[in-house]
Amino acid sequence: xxxxxxxxxxxxxxxxxxxxxxxxxxxxxxxxxxxxxxxxxxxxxxxxxxxxxxxxxxxxxxxxxxxxxxxxxxxxxxxxxxxxxxxxxxxxxxxxxxxxxxxxxxxxxxxxxxxxxxxxxxxxxxxxxxxxxxxxxxxxxxxxxxxxxxxxxxxxxxxxxxxxx
Amino acid sequence: xxxxxxxxxxxxxxxxxxxxxxxxxxxxxxxxxxxxxxxxxxxxxxxxxxxxxxxxxxxxxxxxxxxxxxxxxxxxxxxxxxxxxxxxxxxxxxxxxxxxxxxxxxxxxxxxxxxxxxxxxxxxxxxxxxxxxxxxxxxxxxxxxxxxxxxxxxxxxxxxxxxxxxxxxxxxxxxxxxxxxxxxxxxxxxxxxxxxxxxxxxxxxxxxxxxxxxxxxxxxxxxxxxxxxxxxxxxxxxxxxxxxxxxxxxxxxxxxxxxxxxxxxxxxxxxxxxxxxxxxxxxxxxxxxxxxxxxxxxxxxxxxxxxxxxxxxxxxxxxxxxxxxxxxxxxxxxxxxxxxxxxxxxxxxxxxxxxxxxxxxxxxxxxxxxxxxxxxxxxxxxxxxxxxxxxxxxxxxxxxxxxxxxxxxxxxxxxxxxxxxxxxxxxxxxxxxxxxxxxxxxxxxxxxxxxxxxxxxxxxxxxxxxxxxxxxxxxxxxxxxxxxxxxxxxxxxxxxxxxxxxxxxxxxxxxxxxxxxxxxxxxxxxxxxxxxxxxxxxxxxxxxxxxxxxxxxxxxxxxxxxxxxxxxxxxxxxxxxxxxxxxxxxxxxxxxxxxxxxxxxxxxxxxxxxxxxxxxxxxxxxxxxxxxxxxxxxxxxxxxxxxxxxxxxxxxxxxxxxxxxxxxxxxxxxxxxxxxxxxxxxxxxxxxxxxxxxxx
Lengths: 165, 696
Known about the structure:
The structure holds two protein chains of two kinds.
Chain A: E1 5-13, E2 16-21, E3 25-30, E4 44-50, E5 53-59, H1 60-63, E6 76-84, E7 87-95, E8 97-105, E9 124-130, E10 133-138, H2 140-164
Chain B: H1 7-34, H2 39-59, H3 63-80, H4 88-110, H5 117-132, E1 158-165, H6 177-185, E2 190-195, E3 213-220, H7 224-231, E4 239-247, H8 285-289, H9 298-325, H10 332-355, E5 357-359, H11 361-378, E6 382-387, E7 392-394, H12 395-416, H13 420-425, E8 432-441, E9 444-451, H14 458-467, H15 479-484, H16 506-516, E10 520-526, E11 530-538, E12 543-551, E13 554-559, E14 563-568, E15 574-577, E16 581-586, E17 589-595, H17 596-601, E18 616-622, E19 625-631, E20 633-641, E21 655-660, E22 666-670, H18 672-682
Parallel strand pairs in B: 6-8, 13-22, 17-19
Antiparallel strand pairs in B: 1-3, 1-4, 2-3, 5-7, 8-9, 9-11, 10-11, 12-13, 12-20, 14-18, 15-16, 16-17, 18-19, 21-22
Helix pairs in contact in B: 1-2, 1-4, 2-3, 3-5, 4-5, 9-10, 11-12, 12-16
């Protein structure tokens, strides 16, 4: 799945360092006010205007059940473009701070064990240790799509459940 | 497409033109059938169209199509020369042939156009017509520079000298020179000479341009003006002159070469011919009919509209700075410039929006055919009247409205208008009337489909609804409410499923489709007098008139299309039914109210009846019923550019989309029918979904 060497953008969330494939990253935005959308899960903070298009913002802290933190000066939104069927969708991820860009050899990546915890192993493409720090590499395609499907599909299921009740 | 305008490009052009040609033919045929317009003109129009169609098909190697059209052309030719009478059957046959051609074209485009089985039957019918009255069918193949046999005894008239010099650029078009020669056949015998003077030397010769010219000597009894008119369909750029050499003199005129780009009248030296008049073929019918237009990919227009939308947003952002800062004398120039910019931006926006607007005529015209076919099939006589065809609406809206309209018209013909005997029994005229009208009404498009048929049978509809469990038998419904039942899913009163309508998927799908593009449909009906379906549509899908309202800290936009009025709440008029459903007594009409705060915050907002005293209630209409939305504050009304939430996120209950406000922030646009729907499901408030998604 991974090619010989990939570049990863890493960021911090509650003192853990996570990495995403840099080719997925569209840009980094400073934190700005979002417009909340009714009837969405907590981790969907709302939508913003990104140069004329409406982009949903996901809070990874809430998503990963990490303690919530106040917005700080370093808080940024990482804009990622993920596959959505044949097309793609653009989504913003709120993180505590961006860290670095690393070139990571595919051979250095170890497979993630099933944590059974807050971060489902399905969304982790591997673990890598750099300078004694462990970085969790995220598969944003799967993470975002599963989340949004859950947010939307879950809503629909719920609606049906109520309707049938 | 613009990059490779080679043979493939020309072929593409031919295919597009052919599709238009077929539409023209259909329109003309329908005029012929209805007896409107000039029969002769229409027949000629159909003939010309089918003729160029045939020529083009042959050019591009669509032999099956060319052969198929040949028979039709022959029939038309006979009609044109009064050898054959136009009958309704014949028109129907032609219409069927057009449909066949419509199907054959895409096949030909894909390169497997040799499937002749489809049209074999039609060809036989055409042949049968031809056989009924045998007549000379001239072979279609025409070689350039035909030496037509000299007339033995032409009923004496004039000899015309027609000199033709095709535009080198356009000679390869479907209506090439070959076509002229074929057209000329119907005027009489002629002789063609090649005007070789215009040939360049071999070194200058370009293989892909046509540099030849011809001189045609035509003996005919037609008037010169008729001949000129007839040749007028040639495009600009063709050098063409018609000249009358009064009495036929068997003498070879001496031909001058055409050198200059101007038309030169070729003067035979034997004649003075003072009344000679050159005709440049640019003022003919064709030019008059085609508005100068270009084809543009709709995606390009959409991105243009998006950009202009952004420009307008930036503009209003700049305007918000205007107030204090701009009072500074040093900035007067800037302020004036901004004002100018604003005007220009608005105008630009309007112009760009207009690019997408198309008259509804093309969509309406299709119904002539539909009504023609259906009424024949049903054995009913129906006159279709179209009004307001010039009304313009967004192309996307037009595309999406076509199917629902077809359904409404089918229903009107099938269920509405009665059979002729029945109509006579009721003392109505034998012929039913169907009126389709389109108009602009206060920023909306209103399409009405009115029939003078039986109307909606209230008793029958009610019985059916009860038997389907849509309403309980003890419910008291007004006629208006009963009429609404026809929009319920799975409802159909047709006793037997016909292939016209009555599958029971009709009206609810119609309603959904119309709602999907932000419109609504209403019905007015009176027993034995007829029904009117009223479709109200937004002008465009890209921009909408919206009322900005404040709910808590958020701004929402309610489409103006659904707002009826706004009132201040008097809390004693609120009643809570069963602790759940809250209704407001609006001039004695109980309307359910929706607390927008509950929706916005996704919870059941705790409130006391008295809390709402003095708050604002926006009364909206959805599906013929009124609802009240409780909001905190009314802000301005403005046009908003509709942005998709679905592109990056997904469809959200109660929302139609989002827009970007002047300050660059996002505001959500409410989908009133959907809001009402979820309100019905959840009874006044939408429970939080946050709890549901806790497991991860």
